[in-house]
Fold each of these.
Amino acid sequence: MFNNRPAMDTTFGAPRDLQPNDSVESNNDVYIIRNTVQRRLLAETGDEVELRDQSKMRQMIETFFNQCLSDENLICTRVERDRMLDWVLADIMGYGPLEPLLQDETITEVMVNGYSNIYVERFGVIEKTDVVFENEAHLMRIIDRIVSPLGRRVDESSPMVDARLPNGYRVNATIPPLAIDGPALTIRKFAQTPYTFQDLIANHTLTANFVSFSKACVEARINTIISGGTGSGKTTLLNVFTEFIPNNERIITIEDTAELQLKQEHVVRMEYRPPNVEGRGEVTIRQLLINALRMRPDRIIIGEARGGEALDMLQAMNTGHDGSLTTIHSNSPRDTLRRVETMVLMAGIELPLKAIREQLASAIDLIIHVSRMRDGTRRVVKATEVQGMEGENIVMQDLFVFEQTEFRNGRVSGLLKSTGLRPKFADKFKVNGIALPAEIFVSQ
C-alpha cells in the first residue's frame, strides 16, 4: 500500500470485477460494512489515524471488518470475504478502485476520463477496463488523497497538478472547469527495476550492433538528443544510455519530474519546482541548468528540453561539457532541430536564425529517434548525424534506419539497419581508444 492520508467520510465504489457474489445480499451491504469499519476506526484512533503504521491499521480494519460481517449476519465464502476485505482496505488505505490497476505489473499507464471511464495501457496498447468509481465526488476524493501527501492541492483555483509519487510514478490531474467531462487523472508507472540494453534487444527496440554503436558514442562523449512522440520510450532509452557513462565522472541530472535511475555513484539529481499556491517560488529547468554549470559537471543530463533552457544547453555543449544527453518531443530528427530552434527563440534573446543553426550544428552530434509502432511496440527508427552547415541549412545524414518488412496479425516486423555510412565523429572513437567492428557500418 501507499503512504496516503485516509479519507474517513467517503463512499467506496467497487470495481465491477470485484463486486460481491450473489451469496451477499446486495452491494449496499458492502457499503454498510465499509462505512461501519470507517466509523469504528475513526472512533478508535481519532485524528491520529493517518499517523498509524500501515500494518497496525490493516489489523484494526480486518478486526472491525470481521465484527461487521458477524453483526450483519452476512454469509459468504472465504474467497468473497477476502475480496471484500481487499476492497475495504483499498478505499481506506490505498487508491480505491485504482489499487488493483496500480499493482498490476503489466500495466504501464492508468487513464481516468471521468468516474466511469477508466483505461489502461498494457504492452503498449490502450484498453478500457471494467473499473468504475461510484460518482464524481468519489473520484475527486481519491485525487485529493493522491496529491495531498505530496504537498499539492487541486481545486477550482488550481485545477491542474503534475507531481511525482514517492515510488516514482508520475501523476497528472485536471479537474473541472478545465476538464469538461469530469476529473481526468493520468498515472504513468515506471518499472521499479530499470530496463537494460539486453531488455531492449529482447523487445526488438534496438539491435546488438546499435548497442555497440551507442556505447561508443557515450564513451566518446558524443552530444546526443533522443527524440520521439509521447510515450515512445525516450526516457527509457535515455536511462539505458546512462549505463555506459564511466563511473568516475560527475553527473548532474535535471528533470521536470525525476524519472531517471542512474547506477553511477557520483550523481547529483535536481528537479523542477512548480510555483506555490500564491504563484511564487518556481525554479525552472533553465535556472537549474545555469546553476548546474557552476557545479563542476562532467556530464549534464536534461530529462527533457521544453523551452528557453535549450539555448543554455547548446552553450554547455559548446563550452566543454561534451557527452550531454537530453530528450525532445518531435516527429523526426529534422523536426527535432526545428523544435530546438523554436525553443532557443523562447529564451527571449534575439539571435539571427543563422547564428542559432550554427550553434545547433556545432553542439549536437547525434539524434536518435524512437517511435511507438502500430502494435504498441517501441523501436529506434533512426539514428541521424548532424554534420554541419551548408549555406543556410544544417546537413544531416542517416546512420541507422528501421525498415519495416510487414504488418501481419497486428504485429510490426522489421529491422534496424545500418545505411553503410560512417559518421564524421568516428574520429572521436579513435581518440578515445574505442574500437568498433567494421561490420557495424556495413549496409545490410
Amino acid sequence: MLASNSTLKESTIDGPRTRLWKLHAHECPELSSHRIGRLGWDDAGPRYDRVRLQPTGSFILACIEGEGRILLDGRWQRVTAGTVCMAPPRVLNAFHSLAGKRFTFAWVRYEEPAWLKPLIGAASPVRTSGGGELVRAIAGLRDEWENARDPKVIHHWVSLVHAFASRLASPWQRGERLWSLWEEVARDPAAPWSLTLLAKHAHLSAEHLRRLCMKELGRSPMHHVTYLRMQHAQRLLETTDDKLEVLAPLVGYESALVFSRAFKRWIGVNPTEYRARR
C-alpha cells in the first residue's frame, strides 16, 4: 500500500533482487561539466523504494521494462515501458516497485543550486513518452565505463546524455505559441487563470489546449498553472521573509491556509518547514 504524502520520509531501500548500476560525478568528473550529479540504470525488484523530499537538482526517469509507481505533482502515477517522468529541483518525488513485477529504468539526477535556472523548468513535462535516445546514451556510457574508459568516448556519451535530457525537458521550444503562454503564466502566477483564459491567450480552443497539454506535459492546463505557482512560491520562500498571508495572494491563493495545503501536497512539506531548510 502506498504511503500518503504526509507520512513519507527520506529513504533508500533496494530489496534483495534489485540490481543497480550508477555513476557519480566524483567518480566521473565529466558529469560535472553538465551539472549532472549522478546517473544510473536500475533493475528494481520488491521491495525497492526511493523517497527524495527536497532533491537539489532536476530528475529524469525513463522506464525501459516492467511497471512501477512514481509520486509527482503530489499524486502517485503508474509508470510503464516507454514512459519518461521528470521532476524539478526541491520538489518531493518518490518511486517504487510493485509486488511481483520488475521495474527497469535509466535515470539522471542533476545538481543545481537555487540561483541557477534548472533543466526542468516552467515548460517541461511532468511525463511524456519516448526516452529511447536517453536510454541508449546511458547504456553506451555504462558500457564504456565498465570496459575501456576512454576519456574521449566518455566525453562523447556524457554530452549525448545531457543533450537528450535537455531535449526531453524542453518540448515547448518547438511550439512558440505554447512556450509563450507558459512564460506569461510564470510571469504572473497570481492572475485568475482559468482554462478559458489560457485558451484565449494561446489562441486555441479550450479542448485543443487541454489535449496538447495532456500529450506534451502529462498534466492538464490548470494542473500546470498550479505547478508554476508552486515554483514561484518556492522562490519567494527562499528569497524573502514575508509571512504566508503576504505570499498566498502573490501565487494565486485566497488564504495562507489554502496555500499551505496546496504547497505541502505538491512539495512534500509545508511552507514553514520548507523555508526552515533553506
Amino acid sequence: MHAIGQYQQEKERYGLGRYSLWTGDLGLAIYLWHCITTEADLPSLDVM
C-alpha cells in the first residue's frame, strides 16, 4: 500500500510516471502482482 501511495504522490508532483523497468511503473506493477499472487520469481533473474 505504501508503494501505491508513493507512486500517486510522485505522479501528481511531476505529472508523469517513470519508465524504467525496475524502478518505474512497470516495475511497480510487477512487484504488486507478485504481492497479490505470492509468487517469488523475478523476470529475467535467471539470465543474470
Amino acid sequence: MATKPELMTTTGGNPVADNQNSLTAGPRGPVLMQDYQLLEKLAHQNRERIPERAVHAKGSAAYGTLTITHGLEKYSKAAVFRQGAQTEALLRFSTVAGEAGAADAERDVRGFALKFYTTEGNWDLVGNNTPVFFVRDPYKFPDFIHTQKRHPRSHLRSNTAAWDFWSLSPESLHQVTILMSDRGLPRSLRHVNGYGSHTYSLINAAHERFWVKFHFKTLQGIEYMTNAEAEAVVAKDRESSQRDLYTAIEKGEFPKWRFFVQIMPEADAAHYRWNPFDLTKVWPHGDYPLIEVGMLELNRNPEHYFAEVEQAAFSPSNIVPGIGFSPDKMLQARVFSYADAHRHRIGTHYEMLPVNRPKSPVRTYHADGAMRFDAPKGTDAYYEPNSFGGPVQDARFAEPPLKISGDADRYNHRDGNDDYTQPGDLFRLLSPDHKERLFSNIAAAMAGVPEEIVQRQLVHFHKADPAYAAGVARALGVTNHAAGK
C-alpha cells in the first residue's frame, strides 16, 4: 500500500489531473459534453463484457399495467399521468454485481427498470430498490463497478476492493448502510420497493417545471432473508427469484406496487438544505410528502426469455413530453451510457426489436448500420430538412429553459458535502434487532479486509453515529480506534 503510485493517464497517454470529479457548469452541474475523460470511462466500461450486460446481468422480468388513479395534470402534461390512463409496462428486476449465471439470493442492490409503452413513445425509468446510490459523480461509476466484479488476477470477488473503495468514498455510506441492512437481501422480487432514485423534471401545459422523485411501494410487504437463510436457498435453487416471480404470475397471484411521487417546485432547489440532484441523498418525506398517483400490477410473463428479457433495453434517454431530466450528474451520464451500452450489446437498431419498439409511430432519419431488420422502402426524404414530405420537428414539444450557472471546472463533489447525517438518521430508525443484523452483515462482508481499511471505514460509521461504529467493531472483534478521535 505504501508503493509510490505512477501517473494516471488517458488511453491516449495524456496525464489525468482529476479522476474524482466530472466537468460541470457550477458545482451542481450539469455535466459538459467536452468531458472526454468521463465519456471515455463510460464508453469503455460498456464494452468490457460481451455479450451479457456489463452491470445488472442477472435479471427477471414481467409485463404489467400502470393505472393512474390520481392524475398529475397539475404538474405534467404527459399522457401517461392523466386521470384513468392505463399503460402497458415491462419491469425487469436484477442484481447488480453478479454475472448471468450468478445465484439470485445474494446480498446486492436490486435493479428495478421500467419501460412504459405510452401513446407518446416509450418512457423508461431505470431505478433500483434503493432511493440512493453509492456514488454521486459518474466519473466514479466505472471504478465502483470494478470493485464489485472479479479481481483481475485471482478472478474472485474481493471484499478488500469493495471496502477500500467505500472507505475512500464517504458518499457511499448511505447506500452501504441500506445494502448491509435487511433490505440488502430481499426474500423475493415481489417484496421490494422500487425507486426512480434520480431527480427528474415534470413539465405541465403551462410550461412550468417541477422536480420529481418516483416511488413504487410494494403491496406484498418488505420481506428479507438473513445470510444463513439465503445460503440455504442458494444451495437448493440458484434461480429462486426468477422461480418465485414466474410462478406467482402463472398462478394469477399478480404482484402490485402503489405508485407515488415527491414534487419540489423548481425554485426550491436553489435553497433546499440538501442538493436535490445528489443521488446519495433522499428528500425527507416531511419536507416533500409522498403524493399517490396510481397502481402498477405485473400480470403477464414473457413468452420467450431471450427475446423479451435479455434483449430488453432500458435507457433514461427515453422520455416523453411532460417528463424531463435534471442537473443530476449521474442521470445525465446514464442518459448517454445506457443507450450506448445497448448499441454495443444488442446492435445499432436495438429499439426496433419487438420488446423495445414503441407502440406509437417511429419516424427518424437514422440510416442503415448492422441489423437493420425493418426493411424500409426507399424514399427521397432520407435527410432533413427536405422538400419531399419527410417528418419534421415541432416546437410545441420544446422544454422550458433549464437555468444553469457557474464556471466549467472539475468541482470536488466531496467538498462541503454532509455524507453522514442521512446514513446516521437511517441507522437510528432501525430496531435493536435490525441493528445487530446490520453489524453482523457488515462483519461478514469485511472478511479478509486489511485492518487499515477496516479502521478507515469505522471512522465513517462513527461520524454517522458512534453506536454504529461500536457495533461493527464489536461484531468484528476489533478495537474501534475512531472512538478515540
